[in-house]
Amino acid sequence: MANANRIKQQAAAPSGTEGALAGPRFTAAAPAEVFFSVPPTHLHHRPVYFEAPEFGFIDQLLDIGGGAGEVVGLLKQRQPQLKATVFDFAPVCNRALDWFHQSEQSADLGAHPGDFFSDPLPSGFAAAQFSHVLELFSSEQILFLLKKAFDSLPRGGKLFIYGHACDEEKQPMKESSWCLPAFTLFVTGASRLYAVSQYMRWLRVVGFSRISYRHDGARTLFLMAIK
After folding, report:
1. Which residue of 17, 109, 111, 170 could cross-link 86, Cys pair, CB 3.0 to 4.6 Å?
2. Which of 8-12, 90-94, 151-155 comes out lowest in average pLDDT?
3. CB-neighbour burial class of residue 51 (10 A; exposed 0-12, middle 13-18, buried 19+)
4. Rounded to whole angstroms, how far apart are CA atoms 93 and 86?
5. Is 142:78 a contact under the CB 8 Å cutoff?
6. DSSP secondary structure of 96-154
7. Contact at 8 Å (CB) between 191 and 135?
8. How far, rounded to the nearest angstrom, does the alpha carbon of residue 84 sit from its chain's CA centroid?
9. By CB neighbour count within 10 A (0-12 exposed, 13-18 middle, 19+ buried), where does 42 fall?
């Protein structure tokens, strides 16, 4: 595995909320360092995600916090009909565009710079995903992001969550207490692993009606929710 790419960004736990679904407030007083390593380079590492039949009906996908694009690039190899846009910070989007060009996928994969906490999500997508993103944040921040994704999707739109979950009896579990095999992360004290049941509760709270999931023996979670 290649050496981790290191990205420093400002992030902090929320200083307050206005109502149950209010967004977190960030300050520059609590910087965090985020470390991204190269994800699995072979599709068979995570068939629960890359081979998910649910993607067969998706042609326009918004990859929220999609990073440098390696994951959606691998997904494209298995799902050739897919067209996707990474939504992340501008420097990260530049890296994603370089990656798509190098891998000859730039015709169908693109990037849109922005901050998924403070900026509106790009419109016009029938599906969105969080891929190894939600583990980085507190339960309050996760709830805010899920509500934002719900509001951005049309009726019948789909949200995919790909990441890691802990056992029911161990939640919430500090991310620092174990090693993520695909992405060595990071970061702030807000990072946690949550059980599948917690994700399902959050999704219902923000408005999703139909939810299904699968997971494997390595704590990998693939979840789909329909608006």
Report:
1. 111
2. 8-12
3. middle
4. 7
5. no
6. HHHHHHHTT-TTTEEEEE--TTTSPPPS--SEEEEES-GGGS-HHHHHHHHHHHHHHSP
7. yes
8. 14
9. exposed
Say if residues 172 and 193 touch (Cβ distance below 8 Å). Answer: yes
pLDDT in tens, 88-123: 999 999 999 999 999 999 999 999 999 999 999 999
Token duo for residue 54 = 């649910």
Tokens of 88: 């992340």
Contact between residue 32 and residue 185 where contact means Cβ atoms under 8 Å apart? no
Contacts of 130 (CB under 8 A, 6+ apart): 64, 65, 145, 149, 159, 160, 161, 162, 163
> Distance of CA 206 to CAs 22, 71, 99, 151, Å?
12, 26, 34, 9
Query: How many Cβ atoms are within 10 Å of 143's Cβ, its own excluded?
Result: 22
Query: What are the structural domain ranges in the chain?
Result: 43-176+191-226
CATH code matching the domain that covers 43-176+191-226, chosen among 3.40.50.11270, 3.90.25.10, 3.40.50.150, 3.20.20.140: 3.40.50.150
Chain centroid to CA 136: how far? 9
